[in-house]
Write a structure and sequence with these properties.
This protein is of the alpha+beta class and about 725 residues long. The chain folds into three domains: about 150 residues, Ubiquitin-like (UB roll) (Roll); about 400 residues, Creatine Kinase, Chain A, domain 2 (2-Layer Sandwich); about 120 residues, Up-down Bundle (Four Helix Bundle (Hemerythrin (Met), subunit A)), CATH 1.20.120.1560. The chain has 21 helices and 17 strands. The strands form three sheets. Strands 9, 10, 11, 12, 13, 14, 15, 16 and 17 form a nine-stranded antiparallel sheet that branches. Strands 1, 2, 5, 6, 7 and 8 form a six-stranded mixed sheet that branches. It binds adenosine-5'-diphosphate and magnesium ion. The site of magnesium ion has 2 residues, from loops. The site of adenosine-5'-diphosphate (ADP) has 14 residues, from strand 9, strand 11 and strand 14.
Amino acid sequence: NQVRRHAIAGVAAATPPPYTFDPGEEPGAVFGENVFSLSVMQKRLPKGVYKSVLATIEKSVALDPAVADAVASAMKDWALEKGATHYAHVFYPLTGLTAEKHDSFLDPVGDGTALASFSGKTLIQGEPDASSFPNGGLRNTFEARGYTGWDVMSPAYVLENPNGNTLCIPTIFISMTGDALDHKTPVLRSQQAMATQARRVLELFGHADPDNVVAYCGPEQEYFLVDRHFFDARPDLINAGRTLFGAKPPKGQEFDDHYFGAIPERVLAFMCDTERELFKLGIPAKTRHNEVAPGQFEVAPMFERANEASDHQQLTMTTFRAVAKKHGMECLFHEKPFEGVNGSGKHVNFSIGNSELGSLLVPGDTPHDNAQFLVFCAAVIRMVHLYGGLLRASVASASNDHRLGANEAPPAIISIFLGDQLADVFDQVAKGGATRSKEKGTLVIGVDTLPDLTKDAGDRNRTSPFAFTGNRFEFRAPGSNQTVAAPMVVLNTIMAEALDHCATALETAVAAGTDFNEAVQQLLADIIADHGAVIFNGNGYSDEWPVEAEQRGLKNLRTTVDALPELVAPEAIELFGRYGVFSEREMHSRYEIGLEQYVLSVTVEANLTLEMGRTVVLPAAVRYQTELATNVAALKGAGVEADLSDLEAVSALVSDLRSSLKALGDLLGHEHDDDALVTATTIRDQVLPAMAAVRTASDALEAVVADDLWPLPTYQEMLYLL
Ligand code: ADP
Ligand code: MG
C-alpha cells in the first residue's frame, strides 16, 4: 500500500530539527524570561501600584481599578521590548480548550501614522463574540456578547512566534448577565469559598489572622508521541485523536520494558525543547519519564497555586503540541489513543496551605499540629464520601470513559486510600471516640498519647482514585486531555463544605463548654463513623471491589451518561449555590454542555468509523478477497486442487464488516431526540457497541489481509517507530 510505504520511508528518513539552544546557556537561564512576573512588576511599577497589585495576588484584596492604567502601560512597554506586536485576552471556554482573541497594539492617529497603545480599560476587560462557544442555554445568539476580565492572580506572558510575538493575558469569560462561560471563573470563586472555611478551622487551632489559604495543584500529564507520517495517514487520529481501528501488535506492553526505561534519543530532544519553552513561560517542568505503554511518556511540573497551575497546564498542552510538530511528531493527549495498551491520565495532586503554614495535609511535629492535620484529613474523608459522585462527574467525558475502570486507571468508584499509618490512626480515633475513654492504647487527640506521625507517605496504591501520598492527595481519575480546572472546582467546593462542617461542630462544642481537645476527638470519631465507608486500602482492580463498594453504598458511575446527572442533583445545586461557586443556571448549563460534548464527540467517531470502514478497510479486504478468489480460479483452471479455507475465512469477515457497517449506518441515520440525556443514552447503548462491531470485524481482517494491501499504519508501526 502506497500510503503506508510512504509513511514508513518518511519515518526512516526523518532528521531531528536543528538544535535550538545555545550550548553555552546555563540550565534554567531562561526561566520566567517571558513572564510579566512579580519581580518584573516590582522593577517597572511605581511602588504604590506594585504594593496594591501584590496585595491582590498575595492577600486576595480586591483589585484597585485605579492601578490598571499604570500596570497596562508597564505591561505594554515590557511586551514591546519582548517583540510583541499584539495582545490577547486568553480564556478557557467550556470546550476545555484555550481561546484567544488577538488585537494589535497599534492605533491609527490622525496624521496617518499609528501609535502603540494599551490602556487599563483594555487590560481589564475585553469583549469577544461569544456566540460560537458552548453556553448550555445561558445565552441566546442574539445576545452573543461575552466579556473577558483580567485575572490578576495569573501572570501575563509573551508567547513567541516566528510571525510576531503576542502578549497573553489570562482572563475569566462571562456572559452579559454575569454567568460563568468558562473554567477559570469557578476556580477563583471556589478558591475563595475554601479559603474562608479553612480560616475558621485555623483560627480554632489558635492561628490568629492566618494568611490566606490556597489550593495547590501538581498535575502529572501523560501523553503519546507518534511520528507525523503515521499520524497523517490515519484519518481517525487526525479527526478523533484516537485509533478507531487497529489490531493489537504482537508485542504489546506485557514486557514492561518501556516504563522508566531509557528515553529514546528523538524523544529526549523533544523533551529538552518543550522544557525550555515551558521554562521561558515560567512553567516549572520538573519530572519527565517513559510511561507504561510503548510510545507513552509523562511530564510533571512542580505544584503551584491551582489557578495558575491550571492555566499553566493548558499552556503545557499547547506547547507540547506545537513542539511535537516541529520535531516531526504528533503529541496525543487523548485518554485512549490505542486499544489494548494503557491509556493516559492526568493525576491531580491536591493540597491546601499557605507559605506561612506550609501544606495543611502534612502531619506536624507536635500532637497539637497533628490534631490539626487530622481535622483537615478528616474533612477530605468527609468530602470524598459525600461528594464522590461530583468528583466523578468533574472528569466525565466520552474519551475518559475508555480509561476509567479499564484495569489500568482507577475504577469509576470514588474511594479514598489513606495508607497504613493514617488508616491505623483513624481506626484508633474511631475506637476512642466510640468509648470516649482514655484507656491505654487508645488515641486521644491533642494530648501526648498521640503517636508521632511520620511524614513518610507509607506504601503506594496505584489502584485508588484518591490516594494520600504523604503531603497531598492524588486524584487519579482526571483524563489526560481534560482541564484540571473542573476537578479543582469540585475539590475546592467540597473542601469548603467539609471545613465549614468541622468549624461549626468545633465552635458549637466549645461554646457549650466542651474542652477543645475533646471536641476535636469527638469530631474525628463522628466523621469516621459517618464517612469511614469511603476508605478503601485494597485492590481497586479486583472483581470483588465493585460488589463490596455497592454494599458500602458507594456510587459506581461507569459512564459519562451515568455521571453527569450528578451535576443537577438537588444537593449539588444547593451545595454550589451555598458557597457561591455556581448558580442553578450555571450548573444546568454545565450539565447540558457535558452531554452535548459527549454526543458530538461520539457522533464524529461513529461517522468516521463508517467512512473509514467503507472507503478504507472494506476496499482493502475486498481486494484481498479477489486476489484469493483469482488464485482459486487459476488453480482450478490448471487442474490443481484448491484450498478454499482462506477465501472462506476472508469472505466471512468481509460479510461481518459489511453487515456491521450497515447496522451502524442505519443507527446514524436516525434523528436525535430533543432530550440530550436520551440522545446520550442511545449513543452509549447503541452507537458505541455498533462501532465496536465494525472494529472487531476490521481488526480480524487486519490479521489476515496481505500486509502490502493493508492501508492503515499498524499499531506496531505507530507505537514502536519513533
Ligand atoms: P509520582 O509519580 O510519585 O506520583 P510525580 O513526581 O510524577 O510523582 O508528580 C508528583 C506531583 O505532585 C508533582 O507535580 C509535584 O509537584 C506534586 N506535589 C508535590 N507536593 C505537593 C503538594 N503538597 N500539593 C500539591 N501537589 C504536590
Ligand atoms: Mg506519577
